[in-house]
Amino acid sequence: MLSRDRGQQHKVYIPSNARENQYLLAKFELTDELLAAFSQQGADDSDSPYSYCYQQLANLFFDVCDKHGLDAGQFIANDKFLRVRYCPEMFTVESEQQLTFLYSPKYHTGSRAFFDGNERVRKIKLLFLATGPELRHYSAKFHTQVTEAVKEYAQLLELASGAIRLCDHQHLTYDLFAKEKGVEGVQAHKLRSIANRFRAHDVEIDENELDSQTYAVVNLHVNKRVQKLVAADKSSDWPYLELYKHLYETFVASAKAAGLERGIMTANDRTPVVRSKVDSHISENGELQTIDFNEKDPINGFDCYFAKGNLVDAIQFIMIASKGDKTSYGYGKFISDVHQAMRDFADRIDHDEKRENLSMRVHQHIGGHI
Question: Which Pfam families match (predicted)?
Fold first, then answer.
């Protein structure tokens, strides 16, 4: 009985309608040698000097995808940050710094090439979108399929061993108050590390050669009710400063009460990008808020970044797990603590559980070179 109770403490309960995403991203440098090998000799291509190379690389990539049964591979020759999100319709959204893929894994397939033949990119990117039902259950199989395809592609391009970085990204997205809106049923998750989940399906990966991340991003829409929590000072250069301070202080209080040791609030219309790095560092880069984090040597504490004079559409709360947050069961307890913190936060700001979404996305990533 004691063992069962202990196991329950390390599980997190997620709504039955949670959305799953998985995608793998391979990246490698476009070297002078590679460019020369796939350029059309003697052709006058001054108007679009890199089109032929990109198209040849894309065609070869699509052939490899077909051979390995991968029906949603995307060839990308630009230096923009890539995002993948669930959507009932399939389309892409492109901005100056980002390329976002929106699709439903259950219903959408298809491959495309994205490039500008006038520009030489620093890196070629190969995006593999998982498709079909039960992505999490079949994630190890998909990872193996993609890995074999990338290895074959690397051989065809005669790339050196270790020249390609391959990252596996897996998400669970849901409303923290789905039950209050009438959604029935929950899923119990221990949130084991990706390596441990793969091992249960006889797929071995060496965790010592990989970097990994587990973190949660909670999205709060700044609607009229939230705006009225603190009156704006329209005569100030910082009219919403007190609102942002109030939300940040409330978040920190709730997080600490739940036993969390670190968290970040962003209210600046930038996209949070969490990266595994040796040195922890946070910076603003145009549309992006980069958050470098070393899970093996974390820096604890809380921080806030907000727009000076703007009222943002949404505020993000980012909570990143360290190696110390992983128990023998997985990251279930950490995510359960995040649930507790954000439910307490919602209660403190009088969140309308039946009418307002408090969307949460759980990220698990691994990355390494092949």
Answer: DUF3083
